[in-house]
Amino acid sequence: MTSVSAPHTTRTYIRWALALLGALLITGLSTITTVDPVRAPPAPTDIDLTIGGISSIEQTFSITQPDLVGLAIQMRNAAQSDPNTRIPVRLRYADGPQFDLVIGDAFVRAAKDDMLTLRFPAITLIHDLRVPTTTLKLTLSIPALPPGTGPMITVRENALRQGEIAIDGRAEPSWDLVIVPIYERRWADRIWPISAMARGKPGLLGWPPLYPLLGYLYLLMLGAGIAALRQAQTTPPSDT
Fold this sequence. Notes:
Helices cover 21% and strands 32% of the residues. The chain is an alpha+beta fold. The chain folds into 2 domains: 6-31 and 192-233, no CATH class; 47-187, Sandwich (Jelly Rolls), CATH 2.60.120. Strands 1, 2, 4, 7, 9, 12 and 13 form a 7-stranded antiparallel beta sheet that branches. α1 runs antiparallel to α2. The longest helix is centred in the first third of the chain and has 26 residues, at 6-31. It is elongated and about 95 Å long.
């Protein structure tokens, strides 16, 4: 008959408690979401344009991460403009079906620190084979303002050719509207970005914490297996 010592039992309880605590921590980190700070560092090629006299501005850009939840447009001189100026906004696929992913209004008074931020429910295109493209088109319908008046938008030389701006229907491939995509991320994805595997899946398979938990379970089993192997190698054979 084999007896189990009290210290061994205590160590077992501690291991299980730590494993459970780790699982709870991963579940929490996989549930909590955050967004990165909005920054638009200046560039030598920046040019400010007043929106007065312009009727429409279109800008294409590509999504590089899942869960797009907003866009920030660089807009200067907003404080000296009519704060009630309303700019209708549309967001569509650049190619493919022409329906609105986002439609709404942006008000000049909402601009802070030279950035006009638009927020909307998360748009997920990455890793989704059902969508035709990950390139979107932002359309700003500018209200009638006298030329040379109103807030200023910033355009920048398009060195990478990853998108283009069109002003009043005239394409300007060498320039971009300065916009900053805002992405929502789960805290756990900053360490191990695998919760995106849940997107589009039904039931439990669509629960974002499931995949970090499965990865955590795999690491626990791997660690336990390595520890058992090392113990077997270091334990002297018993005398028979």
